[in-house]
Structure formats: C-alpha cells, structure tokens
Amino acid sequence: MALYSSATAKTESFAPPKPVKDYPKDSIKKITVLFTDIVGSSQFFKTFGDVAGTRMLKQHQDLVSPAIAEHGGAVVKFLGDSVMAYFMSPKEALKSGIKIQQRFNQFNLKRDPTEQIHIRLCIHYGNGIIEEKDIFGDVVNMAAKLLPLVDGDQILISQEVQNQVKDLPLIYFEPVKKPDKKEFFNAVNIYQVHWDEKVELQPLLKSMLYIKPLFKIGRSLSKVWDNLLRAKNDLWTRKVEKEKLLPDRSIALLMDSPAVCLETAKSLMELIKVSLGYEGVSVLPVQMVIDIGPFLIADRLAPENLEIDWEGIEPGSIYISAHAYKDIGKGAFPVTPLPTHSQTRSFYRIGNQKDNKASIDQLFLYQNSMIQGENSPCFYCGDKRHLSLHCPSKDLTEMTQGLEQLGYFSLNEINNMYFQFLTSSGQSHEPAAENGTRKSQPAQWANLAFYDLRAVYQLRFFRAIWDSKYDEWNKIKEKKSEGDKGGMIWIGQDCLRVGNHEQAENILNEVLRKDAYDYKIYCALGLLKMEQDNFYQAELFFKKALNHCKSGPQSILLNFLLARLFALKGDLALAEDRIRKILHLDPFCHEAIYQEIIFQFKKGRKSSALSQLIKLIKKSREYFINALIDPELSHYSDLIHPSLRGLLNEAKSEALQLLDSAKIGLERLDKFLGPDAKEVMESKSLWNKIEELLKKDSYFGYLDMAHYAGSILHMSHAGLEERRKKLIYVVNDLNRSLDAFDDYLAEYPHKFLMENLTHDLRRIRQKIEQNIHIQDLDLPQGFKESMVLLDRLQKDLAHNEAKIMRLETFRKIIFYISRFSKACLIFQSVNLLISLVLFPIITYYLSFVIPRFNVSPQSIWSFQKSVLILGAISGLFLSVLYCSKRAPKKRLPFR
C-alpha cells in the first residue's frame, strides 16, 4: 500500500492549479495549517500487513478529526498516514494540536507498545488560497516542510504561529535548533510546544440563530419571507459574524452571543407577525432556535452541526439550548419547562407569562393550516388545496378509526403528528393506509382523522349505507361492507370515485331510464353534479334521492348531503333546517348534534354551543378530537380549548385518583388469592395496560385507565367478598354435613363398623373449630390458610362419604337378608302346612262330595310334591317381593 510519509509530504506539491493573480481577493486569507503524521507507519505495514495497517490509519483519522472540528478547523484531506487541516485562528489550531496529542497519549496507555500510535504534528501560519475542497500556497508548503523535523509525540510551530499564541496560559515554547543545509529554514524560527496537564482546551463555540420558515403551514409566508431577505441589511447584517441561506430558505446567523441572538429573534418574530397580519392563523409558521456550538468550521458557517429534532420545536416560538440559556444567565427570562437539576433538556421554549398562558390554552396549533388554499372548500373534506373532484378521501374505501386512534396520543404528540403531516416533503393530504394498528406510523392516524371529520359526506359512507338492511344509523357506522353490492349503479359510483365523470354519467343515466325509483342513482348523480360545480342540479338530484329513500339511515344521509350543499352555498338557515330534520328522524345522531353545535357557534350562541359540545364529548369521546382539530371550529378555539383542557385534567385527575386505590386493590388480591388466581392474573393484565396508557398522557388513555382501575377495584372488592362468602358457605356446609353424619351414625345399628369413621368425623370437626374463624378471613394469611384447609377438609369429607355409602350398603344387605329369611320361613311354613296337612284332608272330603273326584291314597303324595314345589317357589317370590317393598327408606346425610 502506497503511503505519504513525512518525506513525501514535504515533497508533495501544494501549489495552486492556476496563477495566484487569477484568484479573487476574498479567497486569499490568513490561515493556520496543521499537519499530522504517523511515526513508523511504513514499518507497521511491513510488519503487521495491510489489514492491520488500514485499521491503524482509520484509528488515527478518528482521533484527529473530532479534535480539529471542536476548535473550528476543517480537515482538507487525508494524505495516507498524514492529515492536513486548516484553521482561521492560530490559537484554536494549537489547542487542537495539543488535544490531539493528549488523546493519542490516552489511547496508547491502554495498548501494548506494538499497537500504540505515535504522531508528529506541526503548525504554520500565513497567507493561503482557499478553494471549496482544498487549500494552496506557501503556508501549506512551509507546514509540510516542518513535518520531517518533528519527533513522535511532539508539536513544532513556526515563529508566525508563536507570535499569535504566546499569551496562551500554561503553554510553553522551546526554540528548536534549525537543521543544517536547509536553506528554506533560514528565515523561519521553530519552536517545540510544551504544556501543563491542567491547560484549558475548551472547544471553539459560536452563537447561532437558526430561522426556519414553514411555507406549507402558512401559505402567505412566502412573500413576507422574500421581503424579509431583501431587508436583511437593516435587520441583522450589521449584527452577524456570518450568515447563510439554506436550500429550504432557512436562515442561519452567527452572532456575538446568545443574548444578541435572542434580541434579533424577538425582533424578527414581531416583524413576521405584523407582516402576516395574523390572518386568523393560530400558529406563526416559523421555527426559531438559539444554540451555542461548533458552528464555525474554518471560515465556513456550519448550521448542519445543529443537532435538533424539529418536530419537537413548536412553530411561532423561540427555543434556546441549555448551553445558550446558561450563557445568558438562568432566570434572565422565563422558559418552559422550567430547568431542574434532576432533568435537563436540549432546548427550552422562551416566552413571557402571557405567551405561556396562551400556549397552554392553545392545545392544537394547526386548525387553520389544514385547509389553506386558493380553492373553495372541498365538499368531501373542507380542504381548500384541492377541488372536490380530486379529494384524496375518494381513495378511502372503508370507514377508518382515525379519530379514535388519535385520542390515544398526547396533545404534544398530536401537534407533532400534524406538523409532520403538513410539512412532509410528499404531496399534502394524501390518504394513508386504511388498515393498521396503533403501532402504525402516527402521521397516518393524523391523516385519516382529518378525513374522518367529514366522513359522513364522503363516497365511502355512501357505499357503507348503500342497500343496508339496518334501520339504525349507529349500527350502519359500526358495520363494514353490508348489503347488496355490485350492479351498474355500483360501477357508476366507482367511475365517479376515480374521476371518470363522462362514463359515470352515461352509466347512471342508462340505469335511470330502466329504474327511476332507486335512491342510489339520484344520490350518485347528485355527487357527480356537485363535483362539476353544478350545485343547482346536485340539489335537485339529492331531493329526488330523498323522496325514494326506503329507510331512516338513507334519509339521514341525503339530509346530510343537502345540509352540506347549502352550507357551502352560504345558506346556513336551509342547512340548519336539514340538520333539524335529521334530529327529528334520529334524536341521538351524534353527527347531526355536532353539526348543529357548529351552526350555533357560527350564529354567535357560543355559550350554549360550548355547553352542548361538552355534553356531546362526554357521551361520545371521539368528539374531543373533533373539537380539538376541526378547522371549522378554529375561530372559537380560544373558547373551546380551555374547556377541552378542563376535560383532560378532569379525566386525568379521576384516573390518577383511582390508580392508588387500584394498586392497593391489586396488591390485596395478590396477598389474599396468590399470583395464580384468575382474578389476580386478569387484574395484572389490566394494570399493565394502565401503565402503558399512563405514558401517553392522552384523553382516551385516562378514560380507559379509569375504566381499568374501576375493574380492578371491582375485582378486589366484589371478588374477595364473593370468595369470603363462599368460604363461609363452605364452613357452614361442612358443619351441616358433619351434623347430618352424626345423626345418621347415632341411628346406625352396627356400631362395631363405625369406630374409625366416627374418629375421622370428629377430627374434621375439631380442625374446623380450631382453625377456621370468621375474623381470620379478613387477613391475607388467615384467608389463604382457610382456603387450603377447607379444600383439604372437603376432600376428607368426600372420602368419608364413600365410607358411609359402604356402611349404608352393608346395612341394607343385612336388613334384606334378615327380612328375606323371616319371610321365607313364614311362607315355607305355610306351604308345608298346606301341602302336608290341609291338602290330604281337602282331598279326602272332596272324594265324598264329588264321587267322580277319585284320588287314591297312593296318588296323593305325587300331588303333595307338586304343591310343595309350587309353594316353595311362590314363597321365595313373595319373600323377594315383600322385602323389596319394605326396603328401608332412610335418606343418606349427603343426598
């Protein structure tokens, strides 16, 4: 790998590419040139190879470059193992050189000798030619020739440099003997630099005022900005060290101090306000930032070194960095938030008490900015930047949840989202993706929420209603695609959606000739005529559509479209009449109530309108976002926003009050039931949601937090009380069962079989009496122990129930055998009496009475045997029947 060494740096030509006389005078300036060079780099490459050598060069550059930038220097080029840089100030160049050597010393302390990097460094001061990316002249050549004279870890400077820096404290200069046979050194004295370890090497910091115009927020700002730039000589040129106009027309001004920056910023802010004439704009479309930092690189202003998140900078306000604020003096002017020792911020907002109060009440800054433009308000969304024909809402095919999702963001986040939305480099107001979650890009929800404000007037709402079978307005809003879709009317409205008016009109007129009774045809034709700015025809078609509506929601939709049409024509009386008709059809239609509130504001009935608005928000919380961002209410924001702030604070206060109780309830549940209980797991899940919502500082978040906290409290009170009642019931049930068992065993005839059972039941009763106390159920330990004990006792009792069932079975068997034996004895005795005694007597007398009935004494025995057998069988059957009917009916104690 080819390298520049100190020798090659010396012979490198730094002559300008063209004669000096051809350069403009302002390109020839006094500059300080600094060279560094790695000692022994060639040998390092030979020993360790190209990979290690390249890594060593990269480390060299990484240590040198920041130290140069910190002191206002500019790296011109990397000459292999050397770095060439230049400064406008010799003092800053020397401080940078000392800092470089200090950093290499610190670096080498942690390395083996073979891995250490030692550099030589030289500085010279004189006239040089500055081009955009290079420097030339004798000053560069002389600095390069000094480099071979420097040893490792040393700094050599020329007499010219020493003359400029000799008053620096704790830095010492030792003359160096000039080498022999070096004629070009005859007129140059050389010094080696030594320094005390306590030397102050503060970086070169400059004060900068950065002014960024937001043309997309304030369309009339462009002319004001042009006038501002033309008048800059009177406004700031005499106060600035350097200025720069950036490609986005932002202005960066380098000034003597933050105090001068602040004075200039306030003057410019006031001038812009006056020039714009306010125009009802709720926010001044300019961002101003004051900072101290390394904004001067050589002779160039470097605003790119300003590290700032512009989304966090509120337009119309002046922000100051913590360093600049400290430089002016804390307490010299009010800032928000107030600086604290525990928390520091990068930038603070400057403002007087009056401004701060106005900012607090001004919750949303961009109500007017969202609808600026040269056109009439769009029928579908109200924006003036496009015609209704080109409204981006036509690209939204489904109802979205933009307003609902926006409610879960803090006010600052909502402002930042709309700031990003309005100032993005892409096309303004392009619709975002319809499907997503709260984790989607926040600007998408800001975009969708803007269109959801007027969703009821848009094609997607017309498609949602279409042929819906629901007769309730709110149900239609909640349901997605429903009803019959398709057909020529659907194709016609889709042609309207994509802006193909001619085809849409042909299709709809053709369908109209075949079916003149479908409201959808007239509605689509009305929207078509509206996009063609033919409001007269649009009104006729909307009225015809209204006459053919078959459901309440269809009539409500057409009344909304007519109300919108009349409002855009400026006939608020007719528009308000249509809204009243909607409320007659559905008194709970929130969209109609909200629109009536807007009309009340416009008629000057502000107090009544505000009261109705607050009631509506409490019924349907998404209207908090409507009231916050709706451009139609921008003229009343000074009245509405304080009330919204009150609602937010009320929701926050209620949520935070419930949180402590909910946390105690959760801990109580955990203590009483244990972490694996269903109630505890559900409560912990709700608590995790609360913790996530608490980070957002949002209105919907606080409402949900209160709901979740209430659920936890309900589970902690009702759940525990239910468990406690259940335990008491179990105790009573066990006692009742034990009493029943005792009664049963007291009557049990076979006492010798029940000794063990009696002992077990007595043990269970003793455990209940000794360990279960009602007052213990109010203590976590007693509650848990009671639960465990009762569960075990229930199992023991169930085991004893099985024993009792066996005893009962045994008793029944003994009883049955006894009864059966007695019955058999009786029946068989009767059988023997009849067979052996009565049967021969009856047979004998029958022989006298009935001569034909001739039974010889020899044949009687055969008949007797038959009677004995039949009698025995009948006796057994009758014994069984007798025992089954006379079986004991005693009820078991657990049945």
Care to describe what's here?
The protein has 895 residues and is α+β, with helices and mostly antiparallel strands. Helices cover 56% and strands 11% of the residues. Among the domains are: 6-195, Alpha-Beta Plaits (2-Layer Sandwich); 206-361, Nucleotide cyclase, GGDEF domain (Alpha-Beta Plaits); 374-453, no CATH class; 465-575, Serine Threonine Protein Phosphatase 5, Tetratricopeptide repeat; 823-885, no CATH class. Strands 1, 2, 3, 4, 5, 6, 7 and 8 form an 8-stranded mixed β-sheet that branches. Strands 10-11-9-12-15-17-16 form a 7-stranded mixed β-sheet. The protein has a two-stranded antiparallel sheet with strand order 13-14. The radius of gyration is 49 Å and the shape is elongated. It starts with 5 loop residues before the first helix and ends in a 10-residue tail after the last helix.
Give short descriptive properties of this protein.
8-stranded mixed β-sheet; Alpha-Beta Plaits; alpha+beta; disordered N terminus; 7-stranded mixed β-sheet; 30 helices; 895 residues; elongated
Short description:
With 895 residues, this protein is α+β, with helices and mostly antiparallel strands. The strands form 3 sheets. Strands 1, 2, 3, 4, 5, 6, 7 and 8 form an 8-stranded mixed beta sheet that branches. Strands 10-11-9-12-15-17-16 form a 7-stranded mixed beta sheet. A two-stranded antiparallel ribbon has the order 13-14. Helix 17 (501-514) packs antiparallel against helix 18 (519-531), helix 21 (572-585) packs antiparallel against helix 22 (590-602) and helix 27 (699-746) packs antiparallel against helix 28 (755-771).
